[in-house]
Amino acid sequence: MKKREIRSTTSDLQTTGNILTGYIARFNSLSEDLGGFREMLSPGCFSSSLTAGTAIRALANHNTDHCLGNTASGTLRLHEDNKGLAFECDLPDTTAARDLKISVSRGDVTGCSFGFCTVADSWTADAEGRNIRTVKDTELYEVSVGVTFPAYSSPSAQLRSMFPDGEITIPETRDNPDIPDVALDDNAEGDCQCDCEQCQADACAICSNEDCNDPNCDCQNIRAIMLALEVAKEF
After folding, report:
1. Distance from C-alpha of 144 to C-alpha of 115, rounded to nearest angstrom
2. Which helix (H) or strand (E) holds 198?
3. Percentage with pLDDT > 90 across the chain
4. In degrees, to the nearest 5, what angle opens at C-alpha 87 toward C-alphas 19 and 152?
5. What ranges make up the beta strands (E) of 75-130?
């Protein structure tokens, strides 16, 4: 089963007329500590997705009701350069798009995000023994622009997306006897019934319902995962 992951970062968003531009992701740039590991994107990691011809949509702040563009229609254009994954989006004449354009021009929103499944990655350790994950190939399925709170430096959202089934796969972590077993257990069988828009869009990794208590929602494992990684960092 493929794991859907979410990454967010600050971007150089700009508007020219009715076209929004910026970078969805940057290559060879180490993230902040995401809770026991740091991560970077290898140049070309989006190439296979861009050449596959699969429709990739641009959303406003992960809201599936506000589609800003689509690669299939040509209103969203993605390309890799030496910096990262760049985009151009022809904004539609909708309230959400007009509001986004104003917020970008004012500098109120600066974040972008992308949803993907990892096809290939590798793990190494830096000079201080910290885990470094390098993402080498991805299956890109969605990009979001105008993200209000870029979360690339926040462990919680990244862990929920990276380990949606609760299984920690950071090297030398699963063999640690001090990690609570609950952190390694899969979620109960069944589908999440949370009615937040993220879960309804099959993106439980970024569940926005603070009161969610559905045992099948990915957000239920985050505390155990965080505890496990805190324990792992001590070794």
Report:
1. 8
2. helix 197-200
3. 37
4. 120
5. 76-80, 84-90, 111-125
Whether residue 100 contacts residue 11, with contact meaning beta carbons closer than 8 Å, is answered with: no
C-alpha–C-alpha distance, residues 117 and 138, integer Å: 6
**What is the CA angle 61-67-73, rounded to 5?**
135
| Beta carbons within 8 Å of 139's beta carbon, 6+ residues apart | 2, 48, 49, 116, 117, 118, 119
Which backbone phi and psi does 230 adopt, to 5 degrees?
-65, -40
For residue 154, the 8-state DSSP code is -
From the DSSP assignment, how many helices (H) and strands (E) are in the chain? 5, 10
Q: pLDDT tens across 148-181, in order? A: 665 443 334 444 455 555 454 555 443 444 433 3
pLDDT tens digit sequence for 110-136? 888 898 999 999 999 888 888 999 999
Sign (positive or negative) of CA dihedral 188, 190, 193, 196:
positive
For residue 207, count other CB atoms closer than 10 A to its CB.
22
79-102 pLDDT tens trace: 999 999 999 999 999 999 999 999
